[in-house]
Write a structure and sequence with these properties.
The protein is of the alpha/beta class. It is built from six helices and four strands. A four-stranded parallel sheet has the order 2-1-3-4, sandwiched between helices. The chain starts with 11 loop residues before the first helix and ends in a 15-residue tail after the last helix. The C terminus is likely disordered.
Amino acid sequence: MMPKRNYELMLPHELERAVQEFPVAYAAFGSLEWHGRHLALGNDTLKALGILEHSADLYGGVVLPPTYWGCVGRWHPWTFADIGQDLLARICEYIFRSLAEVGFKVIIGVTGHDVEPQLNAMKEALQKVRADYPVDGFMMMEGDLADFGEHRMDHAAHWETSILMYLHPDSVDMHQIRGDHISGSKEPGEWTSPGIGGRDPRNGAANKELGERLVTGMAEAIGNKARELLRGLEAAGKLEAGPRPGGEPA
């Protein structure tokens, strides 16, 4: 049986062991946004969470409960309104400070809602926490650390559809878009728009095997980045500094 990697499912002694063995916390951010009629509305968050859970399975570390509220224009009635960059930054800062106080040394944040305001909010929060705690971290869109050649991040097209096919196959229904006209560009503001920006996911362009390749590659890149940051903290003499679980000093 694999060790637990989700914070909310851990018993205290399991969390303490995880922090001691690999003091890396993973935080997933996304949105509730329309991704065509064939993908779950929580796609962005489910995608980021699944990638980070794979990183934890491969390398260690602890995965935080995901944050579904994001910086997104309400371009479709089923999309949640923009929470705002300032509020999201405050939420991120609360999460990151809490992680530092628990004893984590590296914080990796991944947004599956790939927009600059969201990423900037995460970076702003990390910068503030790094100034007050002996921690390091990295904030990113899911595909930032890996190169998959012709495959690129998109909106509800073959990239996102493949990933959700692998992570949550019951949250994908390709029959819902079998007759849609897909131009390759998202058309915001139109309730009837397919909402798909990128390569047409139909006719096998999106598939579970590609999704597995993308998720595994991104998870490995994130895990390697976490190791790199831990080595940097160790070289700087910061790895053993700071509070530990239970409030005992290092």
